[in-house]
Amino acid sequence: MGKVYERIDGRLRAFIEQQKIFFTATAPLAGDGTVNLSPKGLTGSFAVLDELTVAYLDFAGSNAETIAHLRENGRITLMWCAFTGPPNIVRVHGRGEPVFRDDPRFAGLLEHFPDIDVDAHGLRAIIVVTADLIRDTCGFAVPFMDYREDRTLHGDRFRREDDDTLSAYFEKKEHVATSIDGLPGLPLPLPPRA
């Protein structure tokens, strides 16, 4: 049924890269802290960097729980489900880090995402995840669902923003600079690109 993998390659990598949506899960260290689960899925916003490292683009939104949790403790799980084809669920448990726009590594990491217009989505950071445990399970109970297309709403909303107006948008949101549990979130004003 389930299997543990030493690396992300071959059939496993192909499966991950073919999925249209994945989920991220993080939590603060506090036992009564808020667990966060987020869907991700804009085409071109995910990349396998090497056999143990993946990354995804963190775009504008009304909170920054994942960033806050990663800044505090680095724990993250990514999950992909097969909604078409043979049933399968893949999880990558690991350590994540938000690489902000003013980080010297940012430009090099951004080169892994050539198929998406990052300026249309209010790019905040690149989340880099190093795998500690890679595993799959059957996915027998996951329903079949058909992908039609990406929604255009996010790009339609944020492509008209520049760094100043995007920072102003984030500053108005209660849980962008600080998480629900009071942890530091996205640095504001938004750091310029390095």
Written account of the structure:
With 194 residues, the protein is an alpha+beta fold. It has five helices and eight strands, in the order βαββββαββαβαα. Strands 1, 2, 3, 4, 5, 6, 7 and 8 form an eight-stranded antiparallel beta sheet that branches. β6 and β7 form a beta hairpin. The radius of gyration is 17 Å and the shape is globular. The model has no long low-confidence stretch (mean pLDDT 96). InterPro entries: Pyridox_Oxase_N, Split_barrel_FMN-bd. This is Pyridoxamine 5'-phosphate oxidase family protein. It comes from Streptomyces cuspidosporus.
Shape: globular
Strand element count: 8
Helix/strand order: EHEEEEHEEHEHH
Cα radius of gyration in angstroms: 17 Å
In what range is the share of β-strand residues? 25-35%
What portion of residues is helical?
10-25%
Structural class: alpha+beta
Tell me about the largest β-sheet.
8 strands, antiparallel
Distance between the termini: 46 Å
Total of DSSP H or I helical runs spanning 4+ residues? 5
Detail the poorly predicted runs. none
Mean pLDDT figure: 96
Give structural attributes.
eight-stranded antiparallel beta sheet; 5 helices; 20% helix
Topology:
Blueprint: E1 3-5, H1 10-18, E2 22-26, E3 36-40, E4 46-50, E5 53-59, H2 65-72, E6 75-81, E7 89-100, H3 106-110, E8 123-137, H4 153-158, H5 163-172
Antiparallel strand pairs: 1-8, 2-3, 2-6, 4-5, 5-8, 6-7, 7-8
